[in-house]
């Protein structure tokens, strides 16, 4: 009988240990909570995880003010609830956000950290007059006449070092007897990157066809009714891209009809990964302001993410530019100063699509209201000059 009792106890212990191990591996935890009467009681509950990444990595991770680990890492066995997540990296602005942990799920978050003192690095020294980012976001076209070969030049943003000494720039369209684009005032790419439009003066434009280009000596089409070009580009973009995306979203997701109408009838700006877009609409309380509305069409929707966000309200629409950051989860905000004594002063900042962690990147004089991120997101390209009344050139603001 004694041996049977010992065997029974052993088997029961093994069963308990095995069951506990299985439950633990599946995320179950035993804890103590207070009930409504204030009495402590033992509870068994599911836990969740928090996968924390940062760019750059190696940052300290604090959860509810307690140092837990360093990025990149996954924090396990967390009781489902809201936590204050704070990420700190020496030399970078701190990052903080309220994160919700759900039972049996992994909540992912990537913190884009910004240097406290971003570097400004020159990319050209040829007196750039205007520039534009290609629709595929891989190239910048710029106008320059102060070069051995004046015309339209290309600056690749990926696949080569991005500095003044070695940046892969090459001539795209040369000045010739048919047109001198280097003397232009502004430049645009078509949505399919097959055409470039150069504004020469208030009413004169040159349109260049880039398809099957095997020479830099191109003959432009002279344009006087520029709106017809923009209308054609918009129509082609809607047919080739927008309509199919909206039809798919309307069929597969419960996207609000008002948002569909706004996206189709007004300009919708799509993220680099084509899974999100934002539109602007008048603020209900103050119609002079604009609300930025972001729609996330990712399927499945990541844990803790929402379909629709209103990350910010633009107080001065005439002097504010919003565009996507490279990771498709952040927006770049470029605001012109309202101070008449500093007409060229701009503030550049970045904000997550949920409205959290708006961080100022750079405040200084710029020669245009443009700021384009590189595909890797480590730099933002602007047009400026380091000295008053000196030539303007392309510069890279290094975020890390």
TrEMBL record:
Pfam family, one: PEGA
Residue ranges constituting the PEGA domain according to the UniProt record: 48-114
Record-linked InterPro entries: 6-blade_b-propeller_TolB-like, PEGA
Domain of life: Bacteria
The name this protein goes by in its record: PEGA domain-containing protein
Source organism of the structure: candidate division WWE3 bacterium CG_4_9_14_3_um_filter_34_6
């Amino acid at each position: 009988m004694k041996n049977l009792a010992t065997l029974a106890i052993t088997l029961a212990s093994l069963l308990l240990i095995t069951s506990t191990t299985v439950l633990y591996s599946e995320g179950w935890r035993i804890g103590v909570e207070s009930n409504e009467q204030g009495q402590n009681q033992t509870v068994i509950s599911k836990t969740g995880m928090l996968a924390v990444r940062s760019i750059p990595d190696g940052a300290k991770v604090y959860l509810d003010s307690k140092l837990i680990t360093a990025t990149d890492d996954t924090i396990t066995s967390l009781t489902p609830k809201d936590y204050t997540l704070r990420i700190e990296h020496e030399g970078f602005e701190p990052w903080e956000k309220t994160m919700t942990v759900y039972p049996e799920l992994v909540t992912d978050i990537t913190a884009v950290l910004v240097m406290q003192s971003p570097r400004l690095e020159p990319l050209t020294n040829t007196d750039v007059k205007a520039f534009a980012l290609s629709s595929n976001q891989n190239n910048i076209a710029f106008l320059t006449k102060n070069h051995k070969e004046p015309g339209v030049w290309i600056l690749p943003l990926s696949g080569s070092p991005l500095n003044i000494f070695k940046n892969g720039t090459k001539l795209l369209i040369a000045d010739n007897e048919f047109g001198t684009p280097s003397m232009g005032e502004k430049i645009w790419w078509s949505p399919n990157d097959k055409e470039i439009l150069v504004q020469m003066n208030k009413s004169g434009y040159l349109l260049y066809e880039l398809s099957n280009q095997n020479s830099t000596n191109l003959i432009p089409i002279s344009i006087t009714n520029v709106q017809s070009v923009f209308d054609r580009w918009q129509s082609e973009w809607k047919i080739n891209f927008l309509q199919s995306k909206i039809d798919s979203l309307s069929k597969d997701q419960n996207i609000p009809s008002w948002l569909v109408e706004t996206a189709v009838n007004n300009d919708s700006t799509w993220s680099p990964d084509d899974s999100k877009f934002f539109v602007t609409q008048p603020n209900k309380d103050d119609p002079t302001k604009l609300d930025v509305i972001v729609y996330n069409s990712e399927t499945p929707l990541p844990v803790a993410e929402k379909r629709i966000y209103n990350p910010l309200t633009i107080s001065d629409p005439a002097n504010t530019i919003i565009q996507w950051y490279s990771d498709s989860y952040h927006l770049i905000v470029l605001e012109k100063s309202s101070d008449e004594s500093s007409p060229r002063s701009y503030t550049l900042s970045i904000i997550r699509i949920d409205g959290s962690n708006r961080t100022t990147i750079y405040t200084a004089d710029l020669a245009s209201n443009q700021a384009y991120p590189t595909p890797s997101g480590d730099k933002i390209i602007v047009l400026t000059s380091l000295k008053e009344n000196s030539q303007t050139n392309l510069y890279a603001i290094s975020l890390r």
